[in-house]
Amino acid sequence: MVKLKKYNGFLKLFVIFLTLFFIFSCSQKNYNLTKIEGKQLPITEKGNETPQIEKFIKPYRDHINKDLDSVLAYCPETLDKSTGKWQTTIGNLMADVCLEKGNVVFKAREKKNIDLCLLNHGGIRAILPKGNVTTRTAFEIMPFENSLIVVALNGNQILDIASYIIKEKKPQPLSGMTFTIAKDNTAKNILIQGKPVDTNKTYYVVTNDYLANGGDNMNFFLKATDKFDLNYKIRNVLIDYFKEVDTIPVKNDVRITVE
Amino acid sequence: MKRREFIEKTAASTALLSLGLSLSSFETNDIKHLTILHTNDVHSHIDPFPADDPRNANKGGVSRRAALIETIRKENPNVLLLDAGDIFQGTPYFNYYGGELEFKLMSMMKYDASTIGNHDFDNGLDGLYAQMPHATFEFINSNYDFKNTVMNGLVKPYKIFNKNGIKVGVFGLGIELDGLVDKKMYKETVYNNPVEVAQDMTQLLKKDEKCDLVICLSHLGYNYRDDESKICDLKLAELTQDIDLIIGGHTHTFLDKPTIVKNKAGENVLVNQVGCYGINLGRIDFYFDKNKAHTNQGKSIIV
């Protein structure tokens, strides 16, 4: 018995020694980085697929596709942002729809009316093709999450809007406002809701949150005296509109006249 | 009986001794190989681009990425799979499911960690919080303070991965949210100076924790030519030390190969970013050696 105890004690010490030796020998030297190789691996159609992943995605994809491809309206001709120097059919439509749908929310909340709508030409990301209009169409035209903001501007900033449009030489989506570009490249006959612009008056302009923050150099929006977030995504504005109408109107009316 | 016990124990200790010797002798000449795989700004691109896409026709796709990752894992099981943020936003998958599928697929591919990009706030902190149960990987960010938000405790400031004996310290840096993300989305999240935070992190990971490798997952952006004062990955690499690799995102920068930058101590830092939308997978292989004869030659970087 005594002997065994002795052995055990010895063994215990021996094991402790071994363990310490181990730890010491392992930690005395860290691994040294000797070589690094870096490259980019493209993911292409040449690569294999993973059946398990494909199977997992499928029900999600099928549900989205079914929803996105359900027909909401009919478009009699293709509306394209690249056909038109100062206004386009798709720009007119989008600005009109944003004004109309935005005003429902604004009026209910603030008991006021929106006077005009200004969006940006660059924000229209796709055409509205002739044929069936679906939710997918709305996603293509408006893939971003931008939402409607109403900005209170005074009449001087309305003049700035006209100057901006002339300077940028792009068909910016515009609704509720018309003007003429004079021979000297200045704006005249600026009308808001059919009435001459009054520099002492406050106008309510609906736009998107990106532009309201001065995006695309629309610095006049930064002079806003008040701002109202409608919490209404532009894509949802389009989807709601498409659900309401049967046939999309082709809006060819002239909003900016060139002298 | 006693004799028998004695013999058994002696035999055991001899075995242990010889095992110990063989292990230590094996380790001194051992070369360890770690493969870092990474993505950034995948932006909900789960399906490949359609064949008629004008820019990225037939590129990307989670299913193919998963297959490529699996092939690499078979070749070297010692893989760390990372993402540099902006997992969310960009396809209807996000609009319909709020990021659920993105997180589930990344979990299936066995991602180890991701940092947080500005678009990961697109459904607000609550939207991100709601998807957390679907992620089996870690969220790492060191310069956002989520203390007064629902995300408190769900994002780690750093994580040390032990990969086959190699200690890899990973920390994360996020971009300034003010002006980029609506305040109502990020609420009480506090943004701290990324360079200062990086200095604290490298001190902790390299000096205190003695990591063999320190990786920064960054969503600061590669560089900003029109704004020299803005912090970016290239600048971060120059202003700090003890970071071995910066895996970046945000600027959707496609690089032909990783960039090598000299840090504050004159050492090389690798900065990489693989564009966006899951079009590329970044691969960085690190080889470690315990043999002094090799390490004296210094490290070679092949890009």
From TrEMBL, chain A:
Coiled coil (residue ranges): none
InterPro entries reported in the protein's UniProt record: 5'-Nucleotdase_C, 5'-Nucleotdase_C_sf, 5_nucleotidase/apyrase
Lineage top rank: taxon: Bacteria
Pfam families attached to this UniProt entry: 5_nucleotid_C
Record domain 5'-Nucleotidase C-terminal: where: 86-221
Classification via PANTHER family: 5'-NUCLEOTIDASE, 5'-NUCLEOTIDASE-RELATED
Protein name in UniProt: 5'-Nucleotidase C-terminal domain-containing protein
UniProtKB/TrEMBL annotation, chain B:
Gene3D superfamilies, alphabetized: 3.60.21.10
Keywords: Hydrolase, Nucleotide-binding
InterPro entries from the UniProt entry: 5'-Nucleotdase_CS (IPR006146), 5_nucleotidase/apyrase (IPR006179), Calcineurin-like_PHP (IPR004843), Metallo-depent_PP-like (IPR029052)
Keyword Nucleotide-binding among record annotations: yes
Pfam families tied to this protein: Metallophos
Record-linked PROSITE patterns: 5_NUCLEOTIDASE_1
Protein's UniProt keywords contain Nucleotide-binding: yes
Record-annotated Calcineurin-like phosphoesterase domain positions: 34-253
Similarity remark: Belongs to the 5'-nucleotidase family.
This protein's name: Metallophosphatase
